[in-house]
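Form 7-S
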Amino acid sequence: QVQLVESGGDLVQPGGSLRLSCVASPELILDGYGVGWFREAPGKEREAVASISLTTGLRLYGDSVKGRFAISRGSTRNTVLLQMNSLKPEDTAVYYCARARTSYASLRRSGYEYWGQGTQVTVSS
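Output:
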C-alpha cells in the first residue's frame, strides 16, 4: 500500500523541541523527489512549513519557521525528518508530510501528489 506515515507529534511547552518523522512505504520512493512538510491549524488553511529536494539537497522554509525548523533526510531509507526548535503556541497544528510530483523542493501545495494522515503538535504551557 502506497502511504506516508508521520510520527513524533506531542504536547510540548513553549520554547521546547520536537522531531517529526515521515516514513514512506516501500512502494512509494522518496529518493529523487521533493518532500515537504505542511501544517494545518483549526480554522486556517494548510500552509507550507519546509521542503527538501532529495536530489539536490535544496531546502526551503516558510517565513514563520525560518531559523527554528530544519528539514533533513533521515538516516534510514525513505525517511524525512523535521526538527522543530523554539516552539511557539502558534506552531500548534496537525503536521503533514507529502511527496512532490517532481524532484524540486516547493512550498506550493499543488506541487505534491502523495500525503500522509498527519501528526498533532500542540505547544502549550
